[in-house]
Amino acid sequence: MQPPVPYCLRQQQLWLSSERCIFWEEQKTLIVSDLHFGKTGHFRKFGIPVPQSVYKQDLQRLVHQVQYFQPRQLIVVGDLFHSRENKELDLFRKWRHDFPGLQIHLVKGNHDILHHTWYKDSDISITEEELQINSFRFRHDLGMPAAGRPGQYFFSGHIHPGICIKGAGRQTLRFPCFYFARDYCVLPAFSRFTGTALIDPSDGENVFAIVDKSIVQLQ
């Protein structure tokens, strides 16, 4: 895996991981979005044969990121889970109990529909719409003009941003990416079992594509 890529934002040091997450150094905080844990089990329930190994690999990737960065807290910018409780979430709860010192804050997304007691029993703090830490705000779906709130910078997810990179001839490939606009950042979906929505960055915005476990900054 490529070493994390440094990115300074509003005088704060961020580290972009090719495993689709951000480490915020000053707050010792790992930021992720759209993990969709339990999605493969949800599909299997409806007769679609998606192997459980997909979910286990995503969970193991999260374990590696926590072990690598040693964060004090984990902020999930929505869609930690995919749907109703299923047996796959038992694996998550076991993982949670292996990291009792890690604070987990979930800004609820549209897929986070488990009963509040499940989150409480798993020692997960819930924010319904927006979490603020200093001048950074965290929302699942930006859903409003960030420029209308001067001095604030937003981190969001939801759309699973992707970017097309042109190759030789007429070939194009689509990759997940980190998208940094002037007033907000959209994180890539942490889960690899998701699609992407193409973004159209403007001049002056920064895009970091995730290409074969490496990060490529696009000009």
Quick rundown:
The chain contains 4 helices and 16 strands. The chain has 219 residues and is α/β, with parallel strands linked by helices.
Give an overview in words.
The chain is of the alpha/beta class. The chain has one domain: 4-Layer Sandwich (Purple Acid Phosphatase, chain A, domain 2), CATH 3.60.21. The chain is 18% helix and 33% strand. It has helices at 39-45, 53-69, 88-97, 116-121, and strands at residues 5-9, 12-17, 21-24, 29-32, 73-76, 103-107, 124-127, 131-133, 136-138, 153-156, 161-166, 172-180, 184-186, 197-198, 206-211, 214-218. A hairpin with a 3-residue loop joins strand 2 (12-17) and strand 3 (21-24). Helix 2 packs parallel to helix 3. It is globular, with a radius of gyration of 17 Å. The relative contact order is 0.18. Mean pLDDT is 85; it is low at 41-51.
Keyword list:
single chain; 219 residues; Purple Acid Phosphatase, chain A, domain 2; 9-stranded mixed β-sheet; 16 strands; globular
Question: How much of the sequence is in beta strands?
Answer: 25-35%
User: Would you identify the CATH architecture?
Assistant: 4-Layer Sandwich
Query: For the CA atoms, what is the radius of gyration?
Result: 17 Å
Shape: globular
The CATH topology turns out to be: Purple Acid Phosphatase, chain A, domain 2
How many separate domains?
Answer: 1
Distance linking N and C termini: 23 Å
Helicity range of the residues?
Answer: 10-25%
What topology does this entry show?
Blueprint (H helix, E strand, L loop, with lengths): L4 E5 L2 E6 L3 E4 L4 E4 L6 H7 L7 H17 L3 E4 L11 H10 L5 E5 L8 H6 L2 E4 L3 E3 L2 E3 L14 E4 L4 E6 L5 E9 L3 E3 L10 E2 L7 E6 L2 E5 L1
Parallel strand pairs: 4-5, 5-6, 6-7, 9-10, 10-13, 11-14
Antiparallel strand pairs: 1-2, 2-3, 3-4, 8-9, 11-12, 12-13, 12-15, 15-16
Helix pairs in contact: 2-3
